[in-house]
Design goal:
Strand order of the largest sheet: 5-4-6-7-3-8-9-10-11
Order of helices and strands: EEEHEHEHEHEHEEEEHHHHEE
Number of strands: 13
Distance between the termini: 70 Å
Radius of gyration: 21 Å
Strand content: 15-25%
Length: about 325
């Protein structure tokens, strides 16, 4: 018996629009880590990803989901009412109602990736629900092996990779970083075996420096974006992480100083295009005209609509009259 093969030129190509689950943040059908020291909002970030994929809204108010669908979540450390409360808050900030989100929460008291019957039950649940995204939070509650021994960790990560390939879904694994690892490279600061860092197709790392919370991103098959500053914002009782960095063009104009001619912001570019357009323009059309990233345009459109500067119609965006 031989293994199946294909000539390299016959390997399937992935269309550009299928590269991402969440634009620039998480690759399509990627496995990976959301990592950070305790109390760095790892669970909040994972839940924000869930709301983005299930609700079709930008993650962290900036990174647009390219694919949407059902999310399966197991929150091993948080009580179910806490999970619900957090999801309600994040959904509210994103302009969604929790009843409209296709998020399924595993309510079993434990799920052990090193126990065969639990692995079988998880696979059967995925086969039945067919989620686009599986979130397991945190890894330390999913096993009884020694995280420092590669030979014990690798089979568990290999099982999650098998699920990803078998069911064509993305897998987010929340994992702790070492305390005092702030001076180390983010991936190397993950607690336990180096298998965690090597395993991920997309990895997100949260670090806190005093009051400042920073997100760094790395991908196996795409360029990383610059670090993003985050804040845990509260609005009307709703709590959610929000990206607070400005777009690159705005930052460049500040660095250049008041005497320099600032580059137009993405918001100004969008308004200029809409002011001269003979008909509504879609987000895709504006992205091409403004020569900007999908996530940047999506975030700017959301802000402009909220400010009443532009309007969204069934056929696209128009300037406010």
């Amino acid at each position: 018996m031989t293994l199946p093969t294909l000539p390299a030129h016959r390997l399937a190509e992935r269309p550009h629009e299928r590269r991402w689950l969440i634009d620039e943040l998480w690759a399509d059908e990627a496995v990976g880590i959301v990592g950070g020291e305790p109390k760095c909002c790892k669970s909040f970030l994972a839940l924000d990803m869930a709301v983005a994929v299930a609700g079709g809204v930008p993650c962290l108010r900036r990174f647009a989901p390219t694919r949407t669908g059902r999310v399966l979540l197991f929150a091993a450390e948080d009580a179910l009412h806490v999970v619900r409360q957090r999801l309600v808050g994040i959904a509210a900030v994103a302009g969604r109602d929790i009843v409209d989100l296709d998020i399924h929460v595993i309510t079993a008291p434990t799920v052990r990736l090193d126990v065969e019957c639990d692995r079988d039950a998880l696979a059967a649940t995925i086969a039945e629900l067919r989620p686009k995204l599986l979130i397991l939070d945190p890894f330390v509650r999913l096993h009884r092996v020694d995280e420092n021994i590669s030979g014990e960790v690798a089979p568990l990560l290999a099982y999650l990779r098998e699920l990803q390939r078998r069911f064509h879904l993305a897998v987010v694994l929340v994992h702790h970083a070492r305390k005092g690892g702030a001076k180390m490279r983010a991936g190397q600061a993950l607690r336990g075996s180096s298998e965690f860092h090597a395993w991920g197709d997309s990895n997100l790392y949260l670090r806190r420096h005093g009051e400042q919370l920073t997100l760094s991103v790395e991908h196996r098959a795409a360029a990383a974006i610059s670090a993003v500053s985050l804040q845990l914002a509260t609005a009307g009782g709703a709590v959610a992480l929000t990206a607070i960095d400005r777009v690159a063009a705005e930052s460049a104009s500040l660095v250049a100083g008041p005497s320099a001619s600032p580059s137009p912001t993405i918001g100004h570019k969008i308004e200029t295009q809409l002011a001269t357009a003979a008909s509504p323009l879609t987000a895709a059309a504006l992205r091409k005209l403004c020569r900007s990233r999908n996530a940047t345009v999506t975030a700017a459109l959301t802000d402009l609509v909220a400010a009443g500067r532009i309007r969204k119609t069934p056929t696209g965006y128009v300037a406010a009259r």
